[in-house]
Amino acid sequence: MGRVIDEREPQPQAERVLCGLINGLAKQIEAHVRVRAATLGLTTSQGVALRELTGPMTLRELAERMSCEPSNATFVADRLEEQGYLERHPHPGNRRAKQLVLTPAGTELRERLLRLLFEESPLAPLSSAEQETLQRLLARAVVDR
Amino acid sequence: MGRVIDEREPQPQAERVLCGLINGLAKQIEAHVRVRAATLGLTTSQGVALRELTGPMTLRELAERMSCEPSNATFVADRLEEQGYLERHPHPGNRRAKQLVLTPAGTELRERLLRLLFEESPLAPLSSAEQETLQRLLARAVVDR
DNA sequence: CTAGAATCATTCTAATTGCAATCATTCGAG
DNA sequence: CTCGAATGATTGCAATTAGAATGATTCTAG
Fold first, then answer.
1. What is the pLDDT of residue A144?
2. Does B121 touch chain A (CB under 8 A)?
3. What is the pLDDT of residue A142?
């Protein structure tokens, strides 16, 4: 029973499979965030933003961490600010930049979200060592931006 | 100089970093497809669809490979069909399903696209062995859907 | 056999996202 | 110093995407 279809050469095929897996896992993680964030009254990108807000940072830095355009980060920050989880402070030493700072309510919400995200994580099937290997390989591929 | 911010516990932090890397690489691959597909007059998702159309398949299968909703796969298939790269054939043995089949022009375009995608791939920094390791780890994490 | 659940594709609508343009501020060459 | 380029954030708009509802077909328990 030979394969009728598929590429002749193995390399593009392996590449395609790998791309599909990476995209699939990204979507899977996104779905995981979506479900947990929803229980806290947040959208998916609000959840991602909260996850990435490890401390005061500029809007551009948040956008980079979220791998999205700054305009979207502005949009998400607006919503978080409206809900009282985030404040825009003047950036010390750079008047065009703004520093995004979580309010106490935002900090508390973030901790709750992190706990939810850590439970039943899509990455749980991998051991710590495997996760480290994965991180090392991904970091090698993603260096150039 | 201790870190003022960041989570106390190392595990959620490692998890967050890993999620960011996966998402970042997915976006990087998407951008790569976007640029190459544009040179062929295709959008990003048209490029992804063409990459995944390894042979005749159902619309649902295409959606799964693209990790998107079937409604979007319908949209993309419409565009590819309008441009003469794709045809919807009746599915043998299942009258509700349709079989997506590339036209000769579509097959030729796909081969050109694959060549473009393989050049300067974001995954190129990794050796074949590393790509295999990556694929194995990702497959372990993405099994459950 | 048959009725209800499930599946496949499509449509419609709303939400999300990317992209180009703009304004304010900062940087850097000369 | 100063002027043009670069940077940070925002806005408006267009394109993409997800999600729910619909119609047609298939599956399955009884």
1. 57
2. yes
3. 87
Between CA A88 and C1' D1 the distance (Å) reads 34
Whole-number CA gyration radius for chain A:
19
- H/E run at residue A134: helix A128-142
Give the model's confidence band at A11: pLDDT under 50 very low, under 70 low, under 90 confident, else very high. Answer: confident
How far is residue A96's CA from residue A80's CA, in Å, rounded to a whole number?
Answer: 21
The DSSP result for chain B, as a single string, is ---SSS-SSHHHHHHHHHHHHHHHHHHHHHHHHHHHHHHTT--HHHHHHHHH-SSSEEHHHHHHHHTS-HHHHHHHHHHHHHTTSEEEEEPTT-TT-EEEEE-HHHHHHHHHHHHHHHTT-TTTTS-HHHHHHHHHHHHHHH---
Which two tokens mark B70? 């079937």
| pTM, full prediction | 0.90
B61 contacts B31 by C-beta, under 8 angstroms: no
CA nearest neighbour of B141 among A86, A29, A8: A29
Shortest CA distance to B18 belongs to which of A108, A77, A17, A121?
A121
Q: Which helix (H) or strand (E) holds A110?
A: helix A104-118
CB A51 within 8 A of CB A128: no
Q: What is the predicted pLDDT for the residue at B74? A: 98
Return the domain boundaries, chain A: 11-121
Low-confidence stretches of chain B (pLDDT < 70) are: 1-9, 143-145
d(CA B136, CA B145): 17
Fold of B11-121: Arc Repressor Mutant, subunit A (1.10.10)
Nucleotide nearest to A60 (CA to C1'): D8
pLDDT surpassing 50 at residue A1: no
Residues 6 or more apart in contact with residue A141 via CB below 8 angstroms = B25, B28, B122, B123, B125, B126
Strand nucleotide closest to residue A48 (CA to C1'): C16
